[in-house]
């Protein structure tokens, strides 16, 4: 159930004192060089590890991922870049490769420099404890406000045998990946062309991690990376076709499972909701409306209270910036049709209230403007979110 | 200190049972017909009173405003339109004019029909109790989750004498007016051409009520209206010039005071902040960045906690969708320069923390991309906001 499930990977997670306590440094290493692909945050304020990893992955090859929690190494200027490169150098020594073969990732507080001596010691320790059983420890070492690790392993039937995809992620706040993602690391033992791997990752993320929002705040450090070891004695995927389609579907499924775990562990989350928009003119319109509803503080607090206050959903749809005919809008909470043609139906309030206790809560918005659809997962806005974020650095 | 401060206006506020208790119906009437102007919500889901009032104001004339709280008359379809027109008809009988001379406004829960019999009785009662002293009662009757009435009266020196502007507003949640506004009603005793009045209102609102955001949720019912009675024996303002400039400046000042009162009474607000962006390429860019920072849940919760977590401001700037060079960004909290060139400065944490206790908190973002600037006022996101909104309809 981890990044070490596929053949050809070892991992470790250690504590080196970036956080006051607990594990805070993860290393995931291929036994040899891997095909690699990644997508990064679209935030203009990109953290040093994002800049360094993007450069390192230019050749679509990598050997290992080193990631720390407790410090984002963002807003740290030139020193941040030196520190990120030093992380790569130390990890290269630990696993025996060139620094350019290392993917570097960081998550935590912005604007504080890394305690690089501790990080260097932690990387050496992690390198010495890499093992086939280390996936769980690595998954724990990348967490921040998460309350539990997030891991996936699934099998993938190909014509000539069965491959495996493993994955881990962190993320609980500052989550609105939108074109990139948070920290998510995938491993697989298939052999695949780097360009195809990049395409599979982009498509998988577009239908999973890019469709979650906890607070609308896109991070400076988001990154999703996949390493393909080719550790299985199977033919390499070098072209489009059945094998590529199967791999892409499996990668999407792994990414969706991680996405669901992240929303469920959203900061302070007590309810999870799926917002689905149908009948839009364009898919982009549907996505924009879904996101506006999912990020509305009024919708999210009503969700926290279990209040089927559909008028707030209507108001959020109306301010989404999409040209639409509100008099053709239908609205469903679970299976309860609460509004028709933009106005209240004579619905059963008790049933509508019960729809807010389903898991996930299903908010369905049907426009009468076309045939495009979109969806997003979100969670509620509760006291817990305020508690966690009012004093995050203290 | 109210809408009855200018000559030529009477007002009343009564309780007619739309809310469980308290005043919920306001009437503000000119002694005779007034020049009138209004701006309305840009939400595509427009409430019935918005549709009716826009039609009534097509001729830039009005006699009175009738407004209720406790029910937004939004998401109510054809019945909502009939009810809004019935409010106008009843108010026209009460003040002695045509229904088309009445501005109708509603605020409260969306998706619930008006108890029109009670409203009709309330309008008759309000009509019978109109007085020069009724401004305060009217200001109380339009409140929802507001904790206090919001009123302004100020004098305006013109070449030939002194005129007065009065105003009242309501608004505490679902506040992100953006191109229109919440419920705000202005009165004045100057005589002014309707077209100039519209222009003065639009410009005043653009520099005041459009620059506040409490939760980013633009309402279905937003409306700002100004009635000019011409009750003073002064020359009418029929052209641009000194008198128009003086009037516009005074109207802007009145609108700013209301805007400040609204943010200060934001749902659950414990701190108020001014976000100012300088050095942008375009004013639109500056406004967009200011709004993104002001609406970021992470920035707002840090504000609630008094935590000078400037990294979240940096992250919000980066995701605002504006093309900018983060390595030229400077950031100030109050007078403390916390980040320079996109990275942390060696600042005094105690002073930065003290800057979060100023009123308002001043967040200043200096880009190095141009000379345009923008600003917005906001409040924090506290437990109080969640409390108020988790069970708003219950």
Description:
The structure is a homodimer of 394-residue chains. By secondary structure, the first copy, chain A, is of the alpha+beta class. The first copy, chain A, folds into two domains: 9-264, L-amino peptidase D-ALA esterase/amidase (4-Layer Sandwich); 272-390, ArgJ beta chain, C-terminal domain (Ubiquitin-like (UB roll), Roll). In chain A, 33% of the residues lie in helices and 27% in strands. Chain A is built from eleven helices and 15 strands. The first copy, chain A, has helices at residues 48-56, 77-95, 116-128, 135-141, 194-206, 242-264, 283-295, 297-305, 310-318, 349-355, 383-390; strands spanning 9-14, 25-40, 61-71, 102-109, 150-158, 161-170, 183-188, 212-213, 223-228, 272-280, 330-333, 336-340, 343-344, 361-366, 372-379. In chain A, strands 1, 2, 3, 4, 5, 6, 7 and 9 form an eight-stranded mixed sheet that branches. The mean pLDDT of chain A is 90. Chains A and B meet through helix 2, helix 8, helix 9, strand 13 and helix 11 of A and helix 2, helix 8, helix 9, strand 13 and helix 11 of B.
């Amino acid at each position: 159930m981890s990044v070490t499930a596929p053949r050809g990977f070892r991992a470790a997670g250690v504590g080196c004192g970036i956080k006051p306590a607990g594990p805070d440094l993860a290393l995931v290493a291929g036994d040899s060089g891997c095909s690699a692909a990644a997508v990064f945050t679209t935030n203009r304020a990109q953290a040093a590890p994002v800049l360094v990893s993007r450069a390192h992955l230019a050749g679509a090859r990598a050997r290992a991922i080193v990631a720390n929690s407790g410090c984002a190494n963002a807003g740290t200027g030139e020193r941040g870049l030196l520190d990120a490169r030093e992380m790569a150098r130390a990890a290269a020594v630990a696993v025996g490769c060139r620094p350019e073969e290392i993917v570097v990732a960081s998550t935590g507080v912005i604007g504080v420099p890394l305690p690089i001596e501790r990080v260097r010691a932690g990387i050496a320790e992690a390198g010495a404890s890499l093992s086939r059983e280390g996936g769980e420890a690595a998954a724990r070492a990348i967490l921040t406000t998460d309350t539990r690790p997030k891991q996936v392993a699934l099998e993938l039937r190909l014509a000539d045998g069965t491959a495996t995809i493993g994955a881990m992620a962190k993320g609980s706040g500052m989550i609105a990946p939108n074109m990139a993602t948070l920290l998510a690391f995938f491993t697989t033992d298939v052999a695949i062309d780097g360009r195809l791997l990049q395409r599979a990752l982009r498509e998988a993320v577009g239908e999973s991690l890019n469709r979650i929002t906890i607070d609308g705040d896109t991070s400076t450090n988001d990154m999703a990376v996949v390493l393909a070891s080719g550790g299985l004695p199977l033919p390499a995927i070098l072209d489009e076709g059945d094998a590529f389609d199967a791999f892409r579907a499996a990668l999407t499924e792994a990414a969706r499972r991680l996405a669901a775990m992240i929303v469920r562990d959203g900061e302070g989350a007590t309810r999870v909701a799926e917002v689905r928009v149908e009948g839009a003119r364009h898919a982009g319109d549907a996505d924009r409306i879904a996101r506006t509803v999912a990020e509305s503080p009024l919708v999210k607090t009503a969700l926290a209270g279990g209040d089927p206050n559909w008028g707030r959903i209507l108001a959020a749809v109306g301010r989404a910036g999409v040209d639409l005919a509100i008099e053709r809008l239908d609205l469903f909470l679970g299976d309860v049709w609460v509004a028709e043609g933009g106005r209240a139906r004579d619905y059963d309030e008790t049933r509508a209230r019960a729809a807010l206790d389903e898991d996930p809560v299903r908010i369905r918005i049907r426009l009468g403007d076309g045939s495009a659809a979109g969806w997003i997962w979100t969670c509620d806005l509760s006291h817990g979110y305020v508690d966690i974020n009012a004093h995050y650095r203290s």
